[in-house]
Design brief:
Strand order of the largest sheet: 7-8-9-10-11-1-2-3-4-5-6-12
Distance between the termini: 71 Å
Number of helices: 3
Oligomer: single chain
CATH class: Mainly Beta
Largest sheet: 12 strands, mixed
Number of strands: 12
Mean pLDDT: 87
Low-confidence stretches: 1-23
Amino acid sequence: MKLSIKTLATFVATAMLGTVAFATGPFQGMIKFTKTIGPVTANYVYYVKGDKVRVEELGENGEVQGIMIVDTKKNTVKALSPERQMYIDVPNKRPARETEVYVQKTGKTETINGYNCSEVKVSGKTDGREVTYWVADDDFDFFIPMLETLNRKDKLAVYFMNIPDLNGVFPMVGVERKTDGVELSKLQVLEMNKSELDASMFEIPSDYTKFERE
């Protein structure tokens, strides 16, 4: 059966739209970054697929030392120990972290890891801290729900969650300082790749046993 030029053009256009929809959909893939607190730097990797995030902490030689599997839809966190082949449900009993902040979107931009990033400065009204973020906007829909599920208490996370209208963005760089300029902590993305991930990465391995608190 021969295809008319019009039918063929419609088919190609539909296929291209499908490809664009996949490319511009919510972020799925890998994000490798470092987090420095004082003199100590730790290496981490996020693997993101839909409502789930796998967080790996890496050792100096790149070995996986610890894993967290975050399910933002179920609001659950499981911590895995590859060394012991065990896992545990992580309770979240802390109240949501809210604080009064001043937010300044400076209008400055910079290209980081291939993304056009905007500078946002956030300062606490009472705690003498300021965080400067360079944020990329590319449908990073997982990030805010992940922070809410983890309910972290560090300033890099707390200040970010108190910025209005930042859904879908991700901080390529975040630097926490005292108001006198002394650097306290820093988050920096080293590598970011979009890719299709296997669902098994976000499941507990069958040979792991659950650790039960007495």
